[in-house]
Amino acid sequence: MSEPNHNERHITSPTVYFAVYVALLAGVGLTILASYHNLGIFNPILALAISIAQAGLVVLFTMHLKDSSKATVLSVGCALFILMILFGMVFMDYYSRAWGSW
Amino acid sequence: MSATIISLPDQSTARIPKRNYLTQENGILSWLLTQDHKRIGLLYLMSITMFFFIGGALAGLIRLELLTPQSDLLAADTYNKVFTMHGIIMIFFFLVPSVPAVLGNFFLPMMIGAKDLALPKMNLASWYFYMAGGILALWAMITGGVDTGWTFTTPLSTHYVNTNVVTTGLAIFIAGFSSIFTGLNFIVTIHKMRAPGMTWFRLPLFVWSNYAAAVLMVLGTPVLATALILVVLERVVGIGIFDPTKGGDPLLFQHLFWFYSHPAVYIMILPGMGVISEVVSTFSRKRVFGYTAVAFSSVAIAVFGFFVWAHHMFIMGISSYAALVFSLLTMLVAVPSAIKIFNWAFTLYKGSITFETPMLYAFGFMGLFTIGGMTGVFLGTTGTDIHLTETYFVVAHFHFVMVGGMLMAFLAGIHFWWPKMTGRMYPEKISQLAALITYIGFNLTFFPQFILGTLGMPRRYAAYPAEFQVLNVFSTAGATVLGVGYLLPMLYLTWSIKYGKIAGDNPWQATGLEWQTQSPPLTENFAEMPVMDHEAYDYEWLERQKEKEVASVG
Amino acid sequence: MSDSTAIAHGAAAGTHHEHPPYLRHHFESVDQQTDASNFAMWLFLLTEVMFFGGLFTVYMIYRNWYYPAFSAASHQLDVMLGGINTVILITSSFTMALAVWCAETRKKSGLVAMLVVTFLLGVVFLGIKGHEYKEKWDKHHFPGASYSVQAFVNPASDPLQVNAQGKPLAPLAPDMAARTEMYFCLYFAMTGMHALHMLIGMGILIFMIFRARAGAYTEGHSAYVNYFGLYWHFVDIVWLFLFPLLYLINRH
Predict the structure, then answer these.
(1) Which of C65, C87, C233 sits opposite A63 (nearest CB)?
(2) Amino acid C1: pLDDT
(3) ipTM
């Protein structure tokens, strides 16, 4: 840019934002469509998979995680890992309660 | 830019520099609106000291009540309120902010060679959130108190008591922001504000352990917020998430609560461990043995801390399979803790040890924390836990870790850095005496409680069978001694602000960056940006520097 | 390592480098400041992730325990309204991204316009959300003393309790029907918490619109727009999970 000392960050172009926007809309359509078909166990799995993919697109491109520092990427990964620990270990307790005692 | 020169000036000619962070600006507003991390550290120091003595007074009431088997000094419900408020104040308003918010705030930027924390306004906001939460908690205490225990266990807290649960819950929710802000600030500062040459493996171990604690603060505290908000909503609008009559599971609250509150134990102890690393190294004149192992053990404690929370719930009705898994994982935490203890012991080996007050407190820490940690293994084992949980064994265990460990570390740190904070020395002899009194008083107070616990005396009752009285009298007597041990530093440290011997820049001849500037420091910490060109704790390097200096002067 | 060399470089350049007014005193360079603040914003969002994580844990447990109740109660939500709201929120996220782009490329009027559009989309979202809340309130599906299980023990009485083919759903046993209240507890807690975050965001948006009109973000320092954008996108992501989990249980 005009100021020599000012190190401009990488600017994501509106095309990328628009592509993500279209992908998100397609994702919403697909989620709703899929929920009206009987896929058995795969209904919630597919819905969550689409949500995760959408969230991934937003995080990587719209929120520029792709261009962020390694520390940021690592922190996000760390938080998601701890979140999975929370989900997984609470679920483990509830799931195994049905097994009764030893 | 010049390379850092380790300054070892003559103590007898030392002066308090005219321009420092204390004299930079005057007036009450210059303190209340300050964005200087050092001043915010002092604000925290004053406020947590106040809360410590309130919590301590409540502890005194508890011990006095337990002097006799009957519930005579306090009625049973008053006793419940007293121990609840003791726990809440000591945990959320003293232990969690103690080392990070006071010593970490003050010294972390200096140790990494930064001018301030990365987000000074957020730092100030964190103190205001802390005070708001603290005042709300005190208000809840004055207007009727709360008697659920500091754990807010459902359904007791939601259905069976009618005390100030909502106010206290909100107070802790607000104080949680202060904790998050401090932790967030630390992580950003350590990542982005290090001085040139300050690589990750040159960071003092105090910084490493505060970093690990900060990760816990940032990732754990929000889950506590969820749990408390749901309890508050339950009481206010009855949303039923923990209400069995509406299909809720009270145990789910404990999962969410302990998901924070077990890591919170490490939020409390990790920064204390960092202080001990600094102190042990300085007063043995040796680098910390196994620096990398100690650094990574902090991180390991932080990570394992998230896997083990349900060991607080073994008898609460979790599945026995989950109990097995959590019990095994709990044992893992013993490994990094032991790494630290062993490495400190090896640091002492062949060091030239001197016994200044901080070192005495550090010795106290190592002994008491080891006992506290080992008894934790008993409690982490499902079989023994069934016998010992909810007895005085648990009380003794966590007081050994929190009071014997953390408080000793806090006092070690306060004495160690007091010359840097105020520019004046504390009186050495009387403070050595205070450290000794604390140690004796502590053991007299809490060791009998281990025995009481194995004999089966339950915690949280105002009355107990007469055969437990002898040990309880020991414990109460010890608490009196302990009280004197804590009052003494309060008095002589206040005295020394005005009358203490002038300390000079580096009274301990330590290598840390915080000692390479004037005491008390400038508002911007360093006159020019320091460059780190040696390892942390490199006392061999320091010896060579001293020789060079002597040679050049001569 | 890379961080520290960056700082050293900034310090070396410091002598002949005039400081822009938005550079805080304790940073060596604008780069360091932006890096630090951006990282701080991400960490703050991670605390938000953990906060919502607690709520999602509760949801996960009860959905598994009371699946029939959750499935039946989910039919009370309007997929059409929920879908429209999702599209609105995604669009607002898109306009917010464009606002960031406008700020970075110094297009003042574009920035103001995009922020206003984002704000208005937020208003529409909350309007529709409020309409949905009112529906639940009127049908006594707000948890509490007046909660009614009528629609679930007798689905024929409620036009919404039908499957994709238009046939009435099977009635629930009274004890399971009572558990639909748990679903609505979670529905109100989670969407309410989400709406609260949107309200906070819209408050900040108003503030930013005024600052942007004064040209605050289009003179080289666009970072604040970017940080707020991160927050707004995060709120969007939370909704992307809430929508299928609350609206689309067993619709077929």
Answers:
(1) C233
(2) 35
(3) 0.92
